[in-house]
Design brief:
single chain; alpha/beta; Rossmann fold; 2 domains; seven-stranded parallel β-sheet; 15 helices; 13 strands; 34% helix; globular
Length: 386
C-alpha cells in the first residue's frame, strides 16, 4: 500500500452537511476527538458558510484540536441573493456528492444524518466505518427507523434508546454505545445563564412547535396561541418554532406570523441564535409544544410544567412515539387552552415524573462528558480496525 493511500485510510470525517441546527450535536465530539489523539487525521466537512462560522466560533474553546476544515461551496443558485431559494441551506446530498471521492478512501465517517447510508450506497462510498450520532432525544418512530441498522455503530443518548432499538429489531446491541447527549456539552460550554427577556416578572411560556407538517401544531394553532397572549398580557410568550419552520415555509406555502402590534409581552423568533443556544429553554416557566425532542432539553435543564398540543387528534396514550406527553398536560381543543395555561402554573401536572427522563433517556455518569465518551468510543473502534 503506498503512503498516500495509507494516509487517506487514516482519515476520519465528521460531516456537518445538514442545517445549522445539527452542528451543536456533533461539534463537541469532533473537536474532542481532534484534541485527544493524533493517530488519525480529523477532517470536518461543512455544507454551508453558516456551519463553518459556527465551527470556527466553537473551536476557540479547543486550542489543542488538530483538524482540517473543508467547506463545500453551495450550488450556484445559492450564491445569488436574488434567487428565490425554497430552502435556506443546501441539501446534504450536494456536499456529500462533492466530497464522495475523498470519503471512499476514508477510515470512518461520523454524522448526524439518517441519509448517510443511502448516500453512501448511491455514491459508492462503501469502505469507511459509518457512525451515527443521535441529533435529538425524541421518541418518534423516525428515531427508530429500520434504516438506522445500516450504520456500523450508533452513539445513543440513554437506555431508553438502547432497549427500543433492540426490541424493535433495528440493530444489535454490539452496534450501540450509550454516550449521553453531547449537545448539552455545547450548551454548558456556552455558560447558560439566567437572562431577563421581558420588562416584567410575569410567567413566561415558550412555544416551540416541530417543523414537520403532518405532526406540528404550528399551522393550526399559531394564531390561536398568539391571540391568547395578546389578550392576556399578564403572561409572556416566546414564540420560537424549530428553525426548519422558516426554512421550509417558502417550499410548503404557509405563512409565518409576526408581532404586528409589537406586543411587549411577546417575542417571535424564527432564526436567531437563541433558538439553538438554550436561552429560551433556560429562561421560561412553561413549555408549549407538540412532538419536538426539545422537551428533553427542557426537562434536563430543570423540571418544569409542559403543555402538549394534540393538533391532529392522535390516539397517543399507547403510542410509543408520544411517550413524552406523559410528562405534562395534553390539550386537544383550543377552547380549553386557557384552562391548561392556568393549570400549568397551579398544578404543575407531570413535573414529579420528569426525573425519569433524566435517568432513562439521557445518560450522565457524572465523570466524563458526553463528548469525551463519544470520542473515546470512536478511538477504540478505529484502533480495533487496524
Amino acid at each position: 500500500m503506498n503512503d498516500k493511500y495509507s494516509s487517506k485510510r487514516k482519515s476520519v470525517y465528521f460531516l456537518f452537511i445538514n442545517g445549522p441546527h445539527h452542528v451543536h450535536h456533533l461539534i463537541m465530539p469532533a473537536l474532542t476527538f481532534a484534541t485527544i489523539q493524533n493517530k488519525f487525521k480529523t477532517i470536518l466537512v461543512s455544507g454551508s458558510a453558516k456551519n463553518t462560522a459556527m465551527i470556527n466560533e466553537i473551536k476557540e474553546s479547543f486550542k489543542g484540536a488538530k483538524f482540517e476544515l473543508i467547506e463545500i461551496p453551495p450550488p450556484l443558485r445559492y450564491r445569488f441573493k436574488w434567487y428565490k431559494k425554497t430552502k435556506l441551506y443546501p441539501p446534504p446530498y450536494h456536499a456529500f456528492k462533492k466530497i464522495s471521492s475523498n470519503l471512499r478512501n476514508a477510515l470512518a465517517i461520523i454524522s448526524t444524518s439518517h441519509l448517510i447510508p443511502k448516500l453512501a450506497k448511491k455514491y459508492r462510498v462503501l469502505r469507511p466505518i459509518n457512525f451515527y450520532l443521535y441529533h435529538g432525544v425524541g421518541t418518534r418512530a423516525y428515531s427508530f427507523e429500520k434504516s438506522q441498522g445500516s450504520f456500523d455503530y450508533l452513539l445513543i443518548p440513554g437506555n431508553y434508546y438502547k432497549n427500543r432499538l433492540i426490541n424493535e429489531g433495528v440493530c444489535e446491541e454490539k452496534q450501540l454505545s450509550i454516550v449521553g447527549h453531547p449537545k448539552f456539552d455545547w450548551l454548558y460550554n456556552k455558560k447558560l445563564k439566567s437572562e431577563k427577556l421581558f420588562n416584567n416578572n410575569n410567567p413566561t411560556f415558550y412555544y416551540n412547535p416541530h417543523w414537520e407538517l403532518k405532526l406540528t401544531s404550528f399551522i393550526k394553532w399559531q394564531n390561536i396561541i398568539l391571540d391568547f397572549f395578546i389578550k392576556n398580557n399578564q403572561y409572556n410568550l416566546i414564540f420560537a418554532p424549530h428553525p426548519l419552520i422558516k426554512h421550509n415555509s417558502i417550499n410548503s406555502g404557509y405563512n409565518l406570523s409576526i408581532n404586528k402590534n409589537k406586543e411587549k409581552n411577546i417575542i417571535i423568533d424564527y432564526e436567531s441564535e437563541r433558538l439553538l443556544d438554550g436561552t429560551y429553554l433556560k429562561n421560561s416557566d412553561v413549555y408549549i409544544g407538540d412532538v419536538s425532542s426539545m422537551i428533553a432539553y427542557w426537562i434536563k435543564i430543570k423540571e418544569r410544567p409542559c403543555i402538549f398540543i394534540n393538533a391532529h387528534n392522535i390516539d397517543w396514550k399507547n403510542n410509543e412515539s408520544y411517550t413524552m406527553w406523559n410528562y405534562g398536560s395534553v390539550v386537544n381543543d383550543p377552547k380549553h387552552f386557557s384552562n391548561y395555561i392556568i393549570e400549568s402554573l397551579e398544578k404543575k401536572t407531570g413535573v414529579n415524573k420528569q426525573k425519569n427522563v433524566k435517568n432513562n433517556f439521557i445518560f450522565d455518569n457524572g465523570k466524563s462528558s458526553s463528548s469525551t465518551l463519544c470520542a473515546n468510543f470512536l478511538l477504540e473502534k478505529l484502533i480495533d480496525t487496524e
